[in-house]
Amino acid sequence: MTEILDAVRNGASGEVLASTPMPETTRAVFVRRDEQNMFEGMASADKDPRRSLHVDEVPLPELAPDEVYLAVMASSINFNTVWTSIFEPLSTFGFLDRLGKESDFGARHALDYHIVGSDASGVVLRTGGAVRNWKVGDHVTVHCNYVDDQDPSSHDDSMMGSNQRIWGFETNFGGLADICVVKANQLMPKPTHLSWEEAAVNALCSSTSYRMLVSPNGAPVTQGDTVLIWGASGGIGSFAVQYVLNAGATPVGVVSSEQKAAMLHELGCEHVINRKEKDYQFWSDPHTQNEAEWRRLGKDIRSLVGTDPDIVFEHPGRSTMGASVFVAKRGGTIVTCAATSGYMIEYDNRHLWMKLKTIKGSHFSNYREAWAANALLCEGKIVPPLSAVFTLDDVGEATYEMHHNRHEGKIGILCAAEKEGLGITNPELRARVGEDRLTIFRRYA
Ligand code: NAP
To answer: What architecture does CATH give domain 3-204+365-375+384-444?
Structure first.
């Protein structure tokens, strides 16, 4: 056991932590450069994250002036860790090598192992000399927008930065570790009423959905809107449902099981379509789409809410995009941040231009948006969709579950935290938000 992690676990003050020595290594989850071709020629579904993700001690890098070392109490699995672990659509070592060429501190990242993970909740252990707003001992969560503040293009909306990166995916030293390295401008206050693992599963997905559906940079929802949400009980979808409800609009959630539908009902989403039960065949063969099936989905939505969706929250990609463009209302928007089932998209452009629809691309969020999303969590107005908790040693198994769509909501990972349920410092707020509401996804999983 590392002395400083023991001190964190025992609730040591910032002063005590500051005088406790930092270790030279940390336990971390990583993929290896010499294994980046290990799955060559295999089908995606057969590429097994349990083989490519390793857990071992690795050296801690030197700290840059604008960075902090963080004791990661908990982290989460995001789809980007699935992509890294199966080396699709490409190996992430290319990202590290490019970052490595930018500066001396950038060069720390270009290693033969890539520590993954893009979420964390934890305790600040050390701050670099340029860090102003955070101190040793602070309880924080981390958003994953890694911004170069010396690049002029970052200074309107940092997601427009020409070298904008996602921490733990396009950078090294990610959150699936006992100790990680983050820039000070990734830090946000930890919601006081949440446990470490509840606090760790939000920032990436919640901020992404916030930009897509709340921020003027996405397709902001207005009172009375109808919003079709694919994967409505998944990571980004479960936050999308909550943002739509908070906006006084109507979500229509699409899921693939009755259990997920029941979970969404409890979250407040009245209208749910079970795509498994409906058995939509949007593609009649790998090259041909089936407009009659798009029309059937449109009819199903109308029969539930009496109207077409103003906004479609899109991310499955190839399998659903044709249907999404078709079912959106005249003048409506399809907002997309991903393409899980394939990124070479096909849709019938006639339905887009004749009905004056818009396709809007969106990617993660800037610091302001992530901060606003975190503030809603801190107030209990958004709840974490934590459905399962694994240990750091079992990250391969957790990533495998996500790769095969065998999870709901978010999977939390215990890192330095020894057990679940720790880290709650505001039980009164927790009681006001309600234990039942905070545990919806765990109860149905
Ligand atoms: P997730 O937890 O796995 O949820 C996605 C859900 O989508 C699944 O639970 C599934 O729900 C549904 N789905 C999957 N394949 C589908 C298909 N072929 N047709 C219809 N529905 C399908 O993943 P997530 O964390 O929400 O992420 C979703 C995607 O967004 C991933 O590709 C991820 O990389 C991307 N993402 C992008 C950003 C960004 O900043 N650009 C941020 C976060 C995530 P049902 O089976 O219940 O229908």
So the answer is: Alpha-Beta Complex (3.90)
